Amino acid sequence: MPLPSCSNHFSNCISAASRRAGHLSPQARPPHSSTIHSSSGRSGCSEAGRNSSVKYSQTRVHMEGADDLLQPEELGEDQPVLPAVLTPKASAVRAVKKNDWALRSVLKVFVVKVDPNYAQPWQKCPQRSSSGSAFVLDTEQRIIITNAHVVANAVTVYVRRPGNPKKWRSQVLCMGKQSDLALLTVPEDAFWGDDLRPLVFLKEVPELQGPISVAGYPVGGDSLSITKGIVSRVSMVRYSQSGRLLGIQIDAAINPGNSGGPAFADMQGGKVAGVAFSKNVSSSTDNIGYIIPYPIVEHFLSEYRTAGAYQGVCSPGFYTQPMENPAQQQYLKVPEGASGCVVVKLEPSTEAAQHLQVADVILEVEGTPIAADESVQFRDDERVDYSHVISLKHVGDDLNLKILRQGEVRRGAQIRAGRMVAAAWLCVAVLGAQQ
Fold it and tell me: What is the per-residue pLDDT for 313?
């Protein structure tokens, strides 16, 4: 009994699959494409299958990213006419062009620094080089923003635009180590071309699960890198020197070199949610990075606009602890339904120590009630530590408190913030109180 023709069977399968997919109708199929002749049995089957497979794979490779229908003369006489396989390549290119203006504002920072030697204060550490990221904030005033730890103890600072090999000498205008922010400028007019546009901060903290794209120049390469993620959490984060300030936790990858780069909430619109500055490096955690939100950035910028320098983060000069124990609340004579935090320590060199007392209960700060766990309402279903309200104040601003002392509520306690000369902490002065 003669063996069936493998070539006929293979070609018929291809034709049937093409008809089912809508690629090829029986009338459009070339007459000679249904049969691939072989000289004899098994060897003919192998040869025909190999030829068909090769031609089909070549067709697929040739059609990748194609926009037009491939013509028969381009495929050869033995190829069926198949429509082009449309890929998102063209749309991706268009999206990149739309985002291109925002990415051109992301800069790489080259720093040569000499750190102090704290073990041997009479000498300094050896000179070393490092790099970070930055982005354009204002083209009229020629302001670039980055992290303070990127340019701290810098001897020379250079910036480079993406796709441009030239490095431009820059100057540090202002540095705020407590908020880990710094402002740079480039004196050269040629750097500020017409294609360089400033990025804009969102006026509000983004919602949870909002999209985030971090752009910068992390280790592992010299070109611009973009990682994507979402907003995971909004909470108080420990900064370099000022304790805890408001921060946004994201799951987009942040690595050394990303510091100072923008975290886009809307890349096409050039809208920035924050400045990348740190990550959790614990071996038991993954994908925990932090960005500096707009309230902290605005506090830093307003200090620079009004005073020309950063005066620091306001601190009240007293320490508190939660008051969740019912027995403690009863001992301090806290009324039913009220809550707050209890003062446990005062800075002796501040004027707050002259007017506040240990065991005073702070019920409200700036009209915002304080819960027993020292938190205040931030947004719906979100709470942060009450120190966030105080950290937004500037040196010399008034801070209104509602205090409970020995069972008596004192309203209208007005506190003015001021910075001590001999220490990094900020003191307070009580202007007056009405019972």
Answer: 86
* Distance between CA atoms of residues 365 and 170, nearest Å: 42
Amino acid at 174: C
- The set of residues, in sequence order, having a beta carbon less than 8 Å from that of 23 and lying 6+ positions away, is 80, 82, 83
Q: From the candidates 5, 179, 180, 339, which is the catalytic residue?
A: 180
> Scanning the structure block, which residue is given the tokens 């020379």?
156
Residue 59: other Cβ atoms inside 10 A: 17
Is residue 259 part of the annotated active site? The answer reads yes
37 is catalytic: no
pLDDT of residue 117: 94
* Interval 76-92 mean pLDDT: 49
Question: Annotated catalytic residue: which of 131, 259, 387, 391?
Answer: 259
Residue 21 has pLDDT above 50, yes or no: no
Q: DSSP assignment of 263-311, as one string?
A: EEEETTTTEEEEEEEEE---TT--S-EEEEEHHHHHHHHHHHHHHSS--
**Annotated catalytic residue within 5, 131, 149, 375:** 149
State how far the Cα of 216 lies from the Cα of 259, in Å rounded to an integer: 8
Active site residue 180: yes
Q: What is the dihedral of CA 104, 109, 110, 116, to 10 degrees?
A: 180
pTM, two decimals, is 0.73
